[in-house]
Amino acid sequence: MVAINSGNLAEKKTLSKRIRDSFSQVPLLAWFCGFLVAVLLERFVGDPLTELLGLPKIPALFGAVTVLKKPLLIPGTLAFLLVIYILPIIIVPRLCAPVLNRLAGWLFNVSPAVSVAIHLGLLYGILHLWADISGYRLLTLKLTLIAVIVTLSLNVINGYMGEFSCSHPGFLALGAYTASIFTLLFFVDDKVFGSALLPKFLGPFLFPVALILGGLVAAIGAIAIAVPSFRTRGDYLAIISLAFMFIIKSIIENLEFVRGPRGLSSQPNYVDLPTVFIWTVAAVWIINNFVRSTTGKALNAVRDDEMAADAMTVDTRRTKIVAFLFAAFWAGVAGGLFAHVLRYVNPSTFGIQKLAEVLAMVYFGGLNSVYGSIVGAVSLSLLGEALRPLEIFKWIIIPLLLILVMIYRPTGLIAFKEFNVMNLIRPKEKT
Amino acid sequence: MPLLQINNMSHDFGGLRAVNNYNLEIEPGQVRGLIGPNGAGKTTIFNLITGIYQPTEGDILLNGQSIVGLKPYQIAAGGLGRTFQNLRLWRHMTVLDHVKMAQYSKISYGLIGAFFGTPKRRKEEAEIEEKAYTLLELVGMANLADQLIVNLPYGDQRRVEMARALATEPRILFLDEPTAGMNPEELIKMMEIIRRVHSEFGLAIFLIEHRLKVVMELCEIIQTLVFGEVIAEGSAEEIQNDPKVIEAYLGKETIH
Fold first, then answer.
1. Residue B225's CATH number
2. Domain limits at A215?
3. Given CB 3.0 to 4.6 Å as the disulfide criterion, which of A105, A162, B59, B235 pairs with A303?
4. A225 and A210 part of one domain
5. Looking at the domain assignment, is residue A394 inside a domain?
6. A297 touches chain B (CB under 8 A)
7. What's the rounded Cα separation, in Å, for the pair A342 and A331?
8. Where residue A209 falls among pLDDT bands split at 50, 70, 90?
9. Which residues in chain B are closer than 8 Å to A301, comparing Cβ atoms?
10. Are the C-beta atoms of A263 and A350 separated by less than 8 Å?
11. Parallel, antiparallel, or unpaired for β A344-345 and A264-265?
């Protein structure tokens, strides 16, 4: 029933082309169903299956850690992945495609907003079920989602605007500390800031204020870079922003009221998976809105030819400063989330290694592309976790991968591609 | 009152006087040309008027108001559109985005609209898109609106650049060598477009050209610039027969 009904023509096509063709008609909704089946399978038959295959427990990150520690378990892990993930994700979407295409079309006609909401709900459900298996998965997932925000916000500067900024760890630190101070001061009885100033039950409701405040402080910090360095183009921004990062780190290390290098701990546990998910979706939505508007595309004009942008009535200086502060704001928000996921921050987190990580995600995923940032952040975060057993060799493999990407796709995996949600949720049937 | 009036404008690059005592008056709807050998300072004059350089001396009045010291984007929004000798297109953007971008100053949805996709933004974006298609239609590029600019041949890029300049809704259009590097076919198309732009929008046009044929056919009054100074001004015929112009272009002694 899933055969391709193209008669003689289909026979002439190569196998890979035929596979691609048959999957090009699968709507996003069907893919989500495939993933949902996979995570449900894992939840209900995961444990018996691990026993059967002789695995110690359900492989947390697709078995990479297990395999690297005990190579003897490779066949078992592969079998597990095949049964739980690969087969359902290939078969289910293909089987459901005709039905779900109709459903997706119907939803899209009723209201695209409703369709988006349903897709997001499904996505959340999948992530929730997946992360439910272990605390380690949950933590990795939260940090991955935060990495998406950070990468996307850096892409606004380094990709869309085409300047090279190194200040993101600084913005993260400003956001993390501001949000932490806010919540510790008002909602926690701790040694640093004394007893809570406000009733604790208000905490979760005012937490968005803490994050936004963190974002605003990061944006104010960004003014310090933007004003002197946007008078000219070139390497100035890179140097000034790098200096900014180090200055922020040293300032925090020397501020005794935030306990200097020892860092702040015992932040309240406000950041559960839905919170991170909602903030990530909000960040992607708003940043994507911005970069697709003519106001946001002015960034590309400034990057590609500033003189022409000026002559075409674009206020280039304002455009650059607005985008820079906007990016800093989201980095600050991400910093606040980060501090409350780990429930501990210290200044050494926000150093050159963090910078390298974020830059790698941006350039690996692809410049000037929301897809790219999502792909870059997710793949490098997961890879970083999966390769953890290799210890020091992890830092050989990941940079090597980055070099390969730079050689074969100099602008990143998925660069210069517009992220159009409407096209994404549309039914994929050929008409 | 002339649309654009320049009084005694001079500009020094360090110790070099690039433009000396330049005067110009353009009436609404007039087509004027500026010719001169390489390095005469033609593009410098364009850059001075459009605000990229600041004149050392002199005054520039657009609609009777001085525009000296204004930022290039303010001058452009004030009704002075231009094209560039070397195109200066945005290489990662589509044809449509070029023409939409040039309407930047008409956008009023602000940052709220840009961040949250308000109905106002959708309405304004639709409006500027429609306008962009009209202009692309005019230069004959509407069917390639979704193409990336770098994928187009040179002549097409020139025409997109023209549409982009028109999208700023200028009252006076500066064309910096609009037919440079074009083959004869593209040249004829371009001249047709310039004529249409002039007649349909009633624009004043000020153009720099190397090809005398183009200037002679299009312009009512032509200035000849040599070493930053205007040596002759007049109609096409007057210029063609002016001994000083002939000298500047061909040299003093003709070799038989």
1. 3.40.50.300
2. 135-424
3. A162
4. yes
5. yes
6. yes
7. 16
8. very high
9. 90, 93, 101
10. no
11. antiparallel
Residues 6 or more apart in contact with residue B104 via CB below 8 angstroms? A294, A295, A298, A312, A313, A314, A315
DSSP A393: G
Task: Say if the Cβ atoms of A293 and B84 lie within 8 Å.
Answer: no
Q: Which residues of B touch A307 (CB under 8 A)?
A: 52, 72, 84, 88
| A379: contact with B, CB 8 A cutoff | no
pLDDT above 60: residue A302: yes
Do the domain assignments include residue A429? no
B23 in a structural domain:
yes
For the stretch B146-160, pLDDT in tens is 999 999 999 899 999
Tell whether B37 lies on the interface with A, counting CB pairs under 8 A.
no
A327 CB within 8 Å of a chain B CB:
no
pLDDT of residue A13: 65
Place B121 in a pLDDT band, splitting at 50, 70 and 90. Answer: very high
Angstroms from A33 CA to nearest CA on chain B:
29
Is A243's pLDDT higher than 80?
yes
Tokens 């002679």 correspond to B216
Which residues is A230 bridged to in the sheet? none
Is B122 within the bounds of a domain?
no
The ipTM, to two decimals, is 0.91
Q: Is the pLDDT of residue A31 over 80?
A: yes
* CB contact B119 to A (< 8 Å): no
